[in-house]
Amino acid sequence: MQLIECSHHLSERQRSNMLFQGEVLLFRGVPALFTLIDYADRLLKKHLGDIDPTTVQKHLDEADYLTLMGSAQHEFRTAKQPKTLFFEALRQVGVDPNTTYWDHFPLRAVPCGQSHRGGRCGWVDVHRDSWGSTIDAQLNWWAPIYPLEPERSMAFYPDYWHQPLANDTATWSIDEYIRQRNLLPNQELKVPYSSVPLPIEPVDDSNVCPVMLEPGDLLCFSSAHLHASMPNTTDRTRFSVEMRTVNINEVLAGNGAPNVDNAGPKPMYQWFRRISDNSSLQSDMEVCMSSTAR
Fold this sequence. Notes:
The chain is α+β, with helices and mostly antiparallel strands. The chain has a single domain (3-293), classed as Jelly Rolls. It has helices spanning 12-19, 31-48, 62-78, 80-92, 130-133, 174-182, 248-252, 281-293, and strands spanning 3-6, 24-27, 100-102, 107-110, 139-144, 154-156, 209-211, 218-222, 227-229, 238-247, 273-274. Strands 1, 2, 3, 4, 5, 8, 10 and 11 form an 8-stranded mixed β-sheet that branches. Helix 2 packs across helix 3 (62-78). The model has no long low-confidence stretch (mean pLDDT 92).
């Protein structure tokens, strides 16, 4: 795995050629992200109080923290402005909104220590995002809101790019996760069923690679890369935003990262909507395939 710093935007083909070979791209100082960071900072302080959001965990008990964080994350997730700003950031690095589809855009929090976890507050264990979607052409985009430390960033496991890892993709179900989440009295509680497929064998972390980037930088990698949140052993909460995208031309051309261990039953195209007009990737794929078959 090579981390390639980019000072300018790349075409869809240039970007995909590198990502589907296992490279990771880092776009430095994307203008729209600075505006998004300011928006996220103001939103967090609106809900959490006028205090550094990375240290507010120390001032609230777990229940209050999760309730307030849940309200902040809900507003972020349902507001139009943060998505618009992130779409602009993607455009600034070369993403075509007319051929690119996205799934969701959460504000993530990884509290420090072992407490104050639940809902969208907590670290994510080792996984490939493509395990859930079964789309080899899927990409991940990730950006921090506040400065990072290696112990509260995210990390890659490059040895597993070509090496299979036993996992539960054959039996994991997004429908079961949603069913169990809907049974909870509030969305801040931890769901007992994993939100993503997970390994079922030990992971060799001898070559784990934490990544470091600054607020305003944008990380892009193939969803087939094995990665995880770093367990936050610092004294500050990590905040970040993320999005997964699929370019329809790459899917139709059969391009994508190698599938070394995914036993998912079918691609989840229905999760994705086009950036430009919100049309469904599932529907647009059906139209394209129907036209090709004529």
